[in-house]
Amino acid sequence: MYTSGCFDIFHYGHLNILVKSKELCNYLIVGVSTDELIEKEKGKRPIIPFEERVKVVQSIGLVDEVIAQTDKNKQRIVDEYRIDAISVGSDWKGKYPKVSCAMEYFDYTKNVSSTILREALKLNQG
C-alpha cells in the first residue's frame, strides 16, 4: 500500500492515516513531498525541511519504506513500486488523480491539520 503527504508539522491526523494504512497491508510505502514540490504546489516552503520530515515518518515504526514524492504522478509510483492500493484522506474523494490500483479513503481527522497548527503557532508569515 502507498500513501503520501507533506507531513509538515506532523500531527495526529498524519498518524491516524499511517496507522489505518498499515492495518490494511503487509508493506507500507510512504511518499514524503520534497521541499521543492511543496513550494511549487502551495507557493511556500515547508516549516520542517524534507530530511527531517522523512526521519519523523521513518521513526514511527509503521512505515516499511519512505520515498521522495517529487511530483504528483501517482500512476508512475503505482507502476514503479507495483502498488496494489493507495490510501488517502476522505477529503481527496473525487479529486485524487486516476490510478490503476484500488483506492482506500479514510475519514478525515477533524479539527487538526498542518494549516490549523501553522495559524495557531503564527507560522504563516511569508
UniProtKB/TrEMBL annotation:
The keyword Transmembrane helix does not apply. One of its GO terms (molecular function) is nucleotidyltransferase activity. It comes from the Bacteria. The keyword Transferase applies. InterPro entries: Archaeal_FAD_synthase (IPR050385), Cyt_trans-like (IPR004821), Rossmann-like_a/b/a_fold (IPR014729). Pfam families: CTP_transf_like (PF01467). Residues 3-119 form the Cytidyltransferase-like domain. Coiled coil: none annotated. Keywords: Nucleotidyltransferase, Transferase. This is Glycerol-3-phosphate cytidylyltransferase. The lineage of its organism: Bacteria, Pseudomonadati, Bacteroidota, Flavobacteriia, Flavobacteriales.
